[in-house]
Request: fold
Amino acid sequence: MKIAFSNLQEEFRNEFDTLAQHHIEKLQKLLVHYEADLVQLHGLFEKHSGKAGFLFSLNLALPTGTIHANAQGSKPILCVRRSFADLEVQVKKHQSLLRKDYEWKRKRTHRAPSLKQAPAAH
Reply:
C-alpha cells in the first residue's frame, strides 16, 4: 500500500503517527486481496479558522474504485479517528457489494420449539 499524508502539523505529529499506524494495519487486513502496489491511501489535513477547526480527508484508491472519507471537528485527533472509521465502514460496504452479498442473503433457520416453551400435554 502506498501511503501519503499532506499538511501534517508538528504539534500533533507523534500522536497522529501512532494512531494512523493502527488504522492502516486494520485497513491492510481488509485489503489483503488487492495487490499492495495498486492500493493508494492519501490523507490531507487542513486547519480552518472559526468553528470548524480542523478537517481531515482520506482518499483510498483501489483497483475497483475510489473511496473518500472526511471528518471535521475541533480536535485534530478526533477528526483522524472519525475519518479512518468512516473509511473502514465504506471499505467493508464496497467489498460486500463486490461479493454481491445482497444476492446471497442467508435464510433464517427455523428452530424447533424447546421443551420449556412447548405446551404441556395432559
Notes: The chain has one domain: 2-99. The chain has two helices and four strands.
